[in-house]
Design a protein that fits this description.
This protein is of the alpha+beta class. It has a single domain, classed as Alpha-Beta Complex (Nucleoside Triphosphate Pyrophosphohydrolase). About 20% of the residues lie in helices and about 35% in strands.
Length: about 210
Amino acid sequence: MTISAEHLRERLAGTRKPLDPLDVVVPSGTYKWPAGMLEKIAATLKPAGVLIPVRRHDTGLTVLLTKRSADLKHHAGQVSFPGGRMEETDADIEVTALRETREEVGIAEEHVAIIGYLETMPTVTGYAVTPVVGLLDGLVDLEIDRTEVEYTFEVPLSFLLDPANQRLVQREWQGLSFSMVEFHFDGQRIWGATAQMLMRFINIINK
């Protein structure tokens, strides 16, 4: 399935930046959480923002992802979007996502065209994460902060949109079991909250 940048803009046109970065929407359907799961983490949720960077290439659109440094205290070695916790000096969650992206992979704010937002999602690690979707040229150079990011890679949007590449798996957290989707691309395992965000993104595109 081929998707253009214009199509993405149209699909995301009705999305809005959340007024409250802690106003989470619990995953549903494939991601239905067991009863009591949100209650266990709701009181300690911290706001965070990530950027879903969609890069334009002559061959099509790709989604940029990072492999986090193995030396980090949290989520070491995991695949994720650039982003992080909201700071007191951040005006809003979009600023958070863009600042963290610049700090982690060197993409300056002026190179990103914000085209939409996904619903704020709670994570089992205690964050309320708002994904911000941004378009950028594939020729924009990256400057990776190796203390936070081991390396980056890109996944064709067409690969993510193909249902055949969505693997349903069972996960457990503190004795609770639930279903989630994973993607496996070129030796990379994309799972957890990152895969959830990608599925929300895909669902908007496919509406």
